[in-house]
Amino acid sequence: MTKVLVSDPIDQAGIDILSQVAQVDQRTGLSPEELKSIIGDYDALMIRSGTQVTADLIEAAERLRIIGRAGVGVDNVDVPMATQRGVLVVNSPEGNTIAAAEHALTLLLSLSRHVPQAHASTMAGGWDRKKYVGNELYKKVLGVVGLGKIGSHVAKVAKAMGMDVMAYDPFISADRAQQMQVRLSTLEGLFEQADYITLHLPRTPDTENLVNAELLATMKPTARIVNCARGGIVDEPALAEALKSGVIGGAALDVYAKEPLAADSPLRSVQERLILTPHLGASTEEAQENVATDVAEQIRDVLLGLPARSAVNIPGLSAEIMERLKPHLQLAETLGLLVSQLSGGQVQELEVRLQGEFAEHPSQPLVVAALKGLLSHALGDRINYVNAALEAKGRGIHVLEVKDEASQDFAAGSLQLTIRGDQGGHSVTGAVFADSDLRITSIDEFPVNVSPSKHMLFTRHRDMPGIIGHLGSLLGEHNVNIASMQVGRRIVRGDAVMVLSIDDPIPSSLLASLHEIEGIKEAHPVTL
Ligand code: NAD
Ligand code: MLT
């Protein structure tokens, strides 16, 4: 029975989708030890930001195939470890964009008009109209740090409100910024000029404590800053100090270096000009339904053997690409599996040559598929699209990619895999005919035209009379039925290859006899 564990609160819409294909256990609030003790029973894990998916937990998750993060940030998942163990990680990159952007805008407005403070004072019996005089956002300079999905939406709404928007994002082109009518700046320039600053970048080793005492000191004393992105980007003790000493005009935070925020956090001692919310950026009914549906659909699809659309750890292999390239990926994997069985010893290099129409496709998915095929002969089910590239790197296999727009083959395009290693090399070429008909079109430069089948036999031999008959009789004596046979040669009575599709695997006693036939130089049974 396929089982999914849901360890954080998830919208019912997601649970309903998962229940179509699996037994769904909702167990929230588990301690790390409790989680570790039960994770081994599950094929999929669905989480929000509450569950910490550590290396330890992934190691204990023997059956786990997919981790679904109902949200954007995967900083609570050890993605490198998941990749190493072949566990797919998916998220919902857009399901809560609007919710998070609107929360940042809410905080900007609330900061400007002292909404939480005025509310608390009024509820406590006060009527203080003077104390809570605020500022308008209209015509003020907004500095957006991180002009991605959320930052762009904030910029768009802020422009509609009459703000002058500037942005710092080292990975955004000047053209894109111009399209959005946002002027790009340096980080330092933005902090010096902005009246309001809003952060929408990821937390990475580069962005940790990016907003520190030094940068805060460059802000206008009236300027206000909002962090609705990730905790740890703002140095919290430095921010508390800047607010207390009047270095900046105000701050609003939704996210914290450590969540929940510690009772003794220096932020809790700031009396004025600070608004804190408990990580509510994505907490709208709409966003929770969006992310739950998005991620549950991906988990369901993966459990059914279909591709996921937002995989975090197989870049370049979106569902759309998988669908479009399905026969090409299948060919790459089959050729990888074939070439690995033609060679013994350690593979040091894989050359992937993409010719004709193959050169027009994105190459990375084809390379990953070829590596999956190459390694699966040795590693079996443990190897998949998630960990193939990493496993190859770990084994020191150097991947060389060659694109050749003009097709050298009789098909519209072809894919050639060549492996080189401590015991020499081999190369195989294949093509896709009529959209889905896979063919092997050459072996070590000898032209052939055969469809791959489950059991095959490949020989390298001298082209001489009697050799085919001898081999055929030996197979017959061992009750191995030949479905088809083809010889490829370049010169008469020179070297040649023979490719046989057979209905049964070759027993090892037969293989030894094949090697004894005069003229046979190599014989490789292959299972595809
Ligand atoms: P995104 O990937 O679309 O955008 C992030 C942008 O940050 C990118 O354009 C990237 O180029 C930029 N960036 C990366 N490093 C940078 C750096 N050093 N300086 C400046 N810019 C840099 O992501 P998004 O969906 O817009 O999410 C933005 C942030 O919001 C993420 O940290 C995400 O985890 C967080 N988030 C928070 C909540 C919440 O509940 N508070 C909800 C959703 C997302
Ligand atoms: C996210 O990364 O999507 C947000 O932090 C929201 C969340 O899941 O709490």
What's the structural blueprint in terms of helices and strands?
Layout: E1 3-6, H1 12-19, E2 23-26, H2 32-38, E3 44-47, H3 55-60, E4 66-69, H4 79-84, E5 88-91, H5 97-113, H6 115-123, E6 141-145, H7 149-160, E7 164-168, H8 174-179, E8 183-184, H9 187-193, E9 196-199, H10 213-216, E10 224-227, H11 236-244, E11 250-253, E12 274-276, H12 285-303, H13 319-324, H14 326-342, E13 347-356, H15 363-379, H16 388-394, E14 398-404, E15 413-421, E16 424-433, E17 437-443, E18 446-450, E19 455-462, H17 467-477, E20 482-489, E21 495-502, H18 508-516, E22 520-527
Parallel strand pairs: 1-2, 1-3, 3-4, 4-5, 6-7, 6-9, 7-8, 9-10, 10-11, 11-12, 13-14
Antiparallel strand pairs: 13-15, 15-16, 16-17, 17-18, 19-21, 19-22, 20-21
Helix pairs in contact: 1-12, 5-7, 14-15, 15-16
The structure holds nicotinamide-adenine-dinucleotide and D-malate.
Describe this structure in words.
This protein is α/β, with parallel strands linked by helices. It folds into 4 domains: 110 residues, NAD(P)-binding Rossmann-like Domain (Rossmann fold), CATH 3.40.50; 180 residues, 3-Layer(aba) Sandwich (Rossmann fold), CATH 3.40.50; 134 residues, D-3-phosphoglycerate dehydrogenase, domain 3 (60s Ribosomal Protein L30, Chain: A), CATH 3.30.1330; 75 residues, Alpha-Beta Plaits. It contains 18 helices and 22 strands. The strands form 4 sheets. The protein has a 7-stranded parallel β-sheet with strand order 8-7-6-9-10-11-12, with helices on both faces. A 6-stranded mixed β-sheet has the order 14-13-15-16-17-18, covered by helices on one side. A hairpin with a 3-residue loop joins strand 16 and strand 17. Helix 5 crosses helix 7. The model has no long low-confidence stretch (mean pLDDT 93).
